[in-house]
Design goal:
This protein is an alpha/beta fold. It has one domain: 3-Layer(aba) Sandwich (Rossmann fold). 47% of the residues lie in helices and 18% in strands. It is built from six helices and four strands. Strands 3-2-1-4 form a four-stranded parallel sheet, sandwiched between helices. Strand 1, helix 3 and strand 2 form a beta-alpha-beta unit. Helix 2 packs parallel to helix 3. It starts with a helix and ends with a helix.
Length: 154
């Protein structure tokens, strides 16, 4: 006897939602960190549009070993409370701007300040190429924005 279309629809929705849960940033990072040995002292860096979710998953996995962190995400994407030891920055996307340059400087400074023996977990998702920027000498933000716009327009 053929299955009813409503039953097929329910099954397809279950499969779809299971797939979404599997690739959600927080759960993906939790699963990944469960497979690696964590040191007693861990720093966390998360950059991208999914940075907040990835950081939340990492915080769950790292627990009290988390010493500090830096998160950079798109303006308005700080959706979950994170520990105070994580510095959270909102930046610009899809076209980089002044906040992107400030975030790039903050990321470079943060990485250079990490103790040599500190384990650092770096979570990266889409959008990072606009959210965190550093200019080469001789180039301006306007140059970068023009290039970015031309790439976006295809």
């Amino acid at each position: 006897m053929p299955r009813e279309s409503s039953e097929i629809r329910k099954d397809l929705l279950k499969i779809f939602h299971a797939a979404l849960r599997r690739v959600e940033g927080g759960s993906a990072v939790r699963r990944a960190l469960a497979r690696i040995p964590l040191e007693p002292s861990v720093s966390l860096i998360a950059v991208g549009k999914a940075a907040t979710a990835m950081a939340a998953g990492a915080v769950e996995a790292i627990g009290d070993r988390l010493e500090d962190g830096l998160l950079v995400t798109r303006q308005g994407y700080l959706t979950e409370p994170l520990p105070d030891v994580i510095r959270c920055l909102e930046s610009e996307h899809p076209v980089p701007g002044e906040k992107s340059l400030a975030a790039g400087e903050a990321l470079l400074d943060y990485c250079q300040s990490l103790p040599k023996n500190r384990q650092a977990i770096f979570c990266l998702s889409g959008g990072a190429s606009s959210l965190v920027e550093a200019l080469k000498p001789g180039h301006t933000l306007a140059d970068l924005q023009r290039l970015n716009q031309s790439l976006l327009s295809g």
